[in-house]
Design a protein that fits this description.
Length: 399
């Protein structure tokens, strides 16, 4: 197909809803395929820890650090990625990131010791964070500023699907043909995404060259600060509590493994629906979309604390939490981007850093609270932080 140049400035001027062409759909779906491939590789170790640790002669706790390597390298990469790529064509960068993911997954699959495995996972962390740092800016150029929420909903749909599929399928494939084969399959997914990007993405010349000073300068804007704070509050709350939903269902609702699996499946399916709903709401009224997302999460967490001993209530509100979680990865980046329409790539870096920091704080805070206050503690913290995000959303200026 013939490449066409899409300018960010033209997209920003496009204020009327328009139907997407087949080429636009193909390009957006290639971004969704990339998010699915990258996030599948990120979450895969959750289903592989036992055989991976046994094969490499390490403890399961040590093997779990492959996830830490991906996240920690990703946090640094998010801040620097849009500075280091300079004025490279963004299509070239995205295809190159998929190639890096292929190589990293192959290295991890062939690793003969823990350090080679860590190196492979660090490469994946670079690919992941750089992709997400560019994602909002690229989607805005593909679909127009008025449809960024809808476009990001499709891209982040890959995240929801990967979150559901990767750990369970990884465990099944690992038991069937080995953990190395499961890891190698994620390289195949990245290769498919790379081909789709190469065929469908238009040429995307850089419209700006970012410096680290530009990124820090952008962080001084009040709207950007509010957007970053919304990410920190809501995602810290989510990750502080969601990790402990299973212990809550075990100790408070007194569910066994089978019903817990069904409840978590409901969470995942609702997250997919939330992706779609969040995209439409974000394009219509981003302020109300953020308030609605935070309200659903706060209400779901609080209801579980108050009435979660009842099985029907527990199932219903775990599902509602999943709906809110599916909306968040669409609404939060779109909300931040509205404060920086002239600097979407730099805003993307700040967005990814905010997410990574929120994940880290949430994990630490949730662990402390559950050890100190028991199974209801982390969910109470989720409700408090999500409620704080409602107030923050209502303080933001109308878009």
């Amino acid at each position: 197909m013939t490449d066409t140049t899409l300018q960010l400035e033209d997209a920003a001027m496009d204020l009327e809803p328009t139907a997407w062409s087949a080429a636009t759909w193909f390009a957006v779906l290639s971004m969704a395929a990339t998010s699915f491939a990258l996030v599948s590789a990120e979450f895969l170790p959750a289903g592989l820890l036992t055989p991976m640790a046994r094969d490499l002669g390490i403890s399961e706790g040590t093997a779990g650090q492959v996830v830490t390597a991906t996240a920690s390298v990703g946090a640094v990469t998010a801040l620097l990625s849009n500075v280091l790529i300079g004025r490279l064509n963004r299509k070239t960068v995205l295809v190159g990131l998929s190639a890096l993911a292929i190589g990293s997954n192959i290295l991890a699959a062939l690793a003969t010791d823990f350090w080679l495995l860590l190196l492979g996972r660090a490469g994946l962390g670079i690919a992941l964070s750089a992709f997400w740092a560019l994602s909002v800016a690229v989607v805005a150029r593909l679909v127009g500023a008025n449809a960024t929420g809808r476009g990001m909903a499709i891209v982040t749909l890959g995240v929801s699907l990967a979150t559901i599929a990767a750990p369970s399928l990884g465990a099944v494939i690992s038991d069937w043909i080995g953990w190395r084969s499961a890891m190698a399959m994620t390289a195949g997914l990245a290769a498919l995404a790379m081909v789709l990007q190469f065929l469908s993405l238009p040429t995307l010349p850089a419209t700006t060259s970012n410096s680290l000073a530009d990124v820090f300068r952008l962080a001084r804007r009040r709207g950007v600060q509010l957007g970053m704070l919304a990410i920190l509050l809501l995602m810290t709350g989510h990750f502080a509590g969601s990790v402990y939903v299973r212990p809550f269902l075990e100790h408070i609702t007194l569910l066994t493994t089978g019903p817990i699996a069904l409840a978590l499946l409901g969470f995942g399916i609702a997250a997919v629906i939330g992706n779609i709903a969040g995209g439409r709401m974000a394009d219509a009224d981003i302020r109300m979309a953020l308030a609605a997302t935070a309200t659903l999460m706060a209400f779901a967490a609080l209801a579980l604390v108050l009435w979660g001993v009842h099985i029907g209530v527990a199932f219903g509100f775990v599902t509602l939490w999943g709906l809110a979680f599916g909306m968040a990865p669409v609404v939060l980046p779109t909300n931040l981007s509205r404060a920086a329409p002239d600097a979407l790539e730099a805003a993307g870096s700040l967005m990814v850093v905010s997410f990574q920091v929120a994940i880290t704080i949430g994990a630490v805070a949730g662990g402390y609270v559950v050890d100190t206050y028991g199974a209801t503690g982390p969910l109470t913290l989720t409700a408090i932080l999500a409620a704080s995000t409602i107030a923050l959303a209502l303080l933001q200026p109308r878009s």
